[in-house]
Amino acid sequence: MDGLLIGRFQPFHLGHLEALQFALSKVDKLWVGLGSSNKPPQKNNPFSAEERKKMILDSIDDSIKTRIQIYPIPDLENHIKWIELIDTIVPKFDVIFTNDDLTKHLYSKRNITVEPIPFTKREILSGTNIRDMILSDQNWQDLVPEGTKIFLNEINVKDRLKIL
């Protein structure tokens, strides 16, 4: 059985890592969609699809890498057309992992199993919160996997976020 997990991963944090591990506990192969892949760098989407892919791959064990494939998923204004576009980007899947109500509704109408993702410390583990913590010199490093931390330090993330 194969599954799909879509996220923005801005940046990839420990909550995302747990979601990935949760999804992998339910499927053989997991397609990971990098949402908003067509957006230019901006405050809410400061990292490119390639950068987010690097954060994910640098943050997971090699055993997991053999079970996932990562795909850029552009945004569309029309959610139905967006789901149709996903069909042309990722291979067939049996289950989608999501907490988004509209995505749940649309996929359940297509006879795709919808599995909610358990949230871990959602008030702390959010991309928005972590980006804000970086900008205000708070300790964000404990909220991201080591691979993400190294990458963000390499690109001098605080300077990037200040510019945006």
Q: Briefly note the structural class of the backbone.
A: alpha/beta
Unreliable segments of 5+ consecutive residues: none
CATH-scheme architecture: 3-Layer(aba) Sandwich
Measured distance between first and last alpha carbons:
41 Å
CATH fold-level assignment: Rossmann fold
Task: Sum up the overall morphology in one term.
Answer: globular
Which CATH class is shown? Alpha Beta
- How much of the polypeptide forms β-strand, as a percent range? 15-25%
Question: Main sheet, how many strands, which sense, barrel?
Answer: 5 strands, parallel
What's the short story on this structure?
The chain has 8 helices and 5 strands, in the order E-H-E-H-H-E-H-E-H-E-H-H-H. With 164 residues, the chain is an alpha/beta fold.
What is the secondary structure topology, with strand pairs?
Elements: E1 2-7, H1 14-24, E2 29-35, H2 49-59, H3 62-65, E3 68-73, H4 79-89, E4 95-97, H5 101-108, E5 113-115, H6 127-135, H7 146-154, H8 157-163
Parallel strand pairs: 1-2, 1-4, 2-3, 4-5
Helix pairs in contact: 2-7
